[in-house]
Every structure is written in structure tokens, then in C-alpha cells.
Amino acid sequence: MLKKTSAILTLTLSLMTPVVSAGNLEQSGDVLHLALPLTALSATLLIEDDYQGMWQLAATLASSRVGVEALKYTVDKDRPDGSGNDSFPSGHSADSFAAATFIYRRYGWEYGVPAYVASSYVAYSRVASDKHETSDVLAGAAIGALAGWYFTQPFKGVNITPIAYNGTYGVYVSGQF
Fold first, then answer.
1. What is the value of pTM for the model shown?
2. Overall domain count for the chain
3. How far apart are CA 172 and CA 164, in angstroms?
4. pLDDT tens sequence across 147-163
């Protein structure tokens, strides 16, 4: 499993290198925004036999997108570049962080950290290309990450879940032994 997942992530990142190095920040963010969910889907279909992860990814991405679109429809916020009034929240950030959280929750930190770095780059590219303000990408990232945390269960191994309830905060750790 680890070899297949590593191969998928390496292939995705190697395909991204020419786009990122071309110097077009907005375009590289756009491509990476699509590459993260596709990488998550590819890893899920190639590694798992029961397709449970595919449905968790679909639920994560769909719920994240529904939340984003509902907010875009109700919140009238102009984009910094003046290209529209659908700035809040950032859909690119939501999609990217939903995929990154799925990858982290499903396959662990060794794959989650690079996915979160890539998601952060997507969010940065949206602000730097004047499509969003920082608050827009932070809200999108939160929506995507929350959807990922809610719908995604680990493929195998240890599950670490933050807990915040009624003034009590902590971490719940469980695993298969």
C-alpha cells in the first residue's frame, strides 16, 4: 500500500513541477487545486478494495462545496480584483483543504503534510493573484478541513481526533492492534 500511495503522490508532484516553475502563480494554484482531489481519488481507487474511501472522499468534497456555494450565494463580498461578488469563502481553498484532510485522515501524516503544504500554496496563490483576501481563504480552508474531519475514517492504523465539548478539550486516540 505505501509503495502505491508514494508512487501516486510522486507522480502528481512531478506533473506539477513544470506548471509551478513556469512562474504563473494563479495557474499553478488552479492546477494544484484540481490535482489534490484527483490524487486522493486515485490513491483510494488503486489502494482500497472496498471503495469505502471513495465514498468518504465524495461526501467530503460534496459537503464542502455545498457549504461554500451556500455562503457565496448569501454573502455578497467583492473580489479584490473586482471580477465578481463571490469572494467569500474561497472554493479553491475549501476543495484543496478537504482533499488534504482526507489524505491525512485516511493515510496518515506522511502523506498529509505534503498535501497540506500543497493546499497552503493554493490558498496563497488565491491571495497573491488578488482573487481573495486572507479571510476568504481561511474560511474556505476551515470548511474543507471540517468536512474532511467529519466524513473521513482512517484506512488503517491509528486515529487521532481532537475533542472540544462543553469547555473540555483534548485528543482521542484509537487504533487497530
1. 0.79
2. 1
3. 10
4. 999 999 887 655 556 66
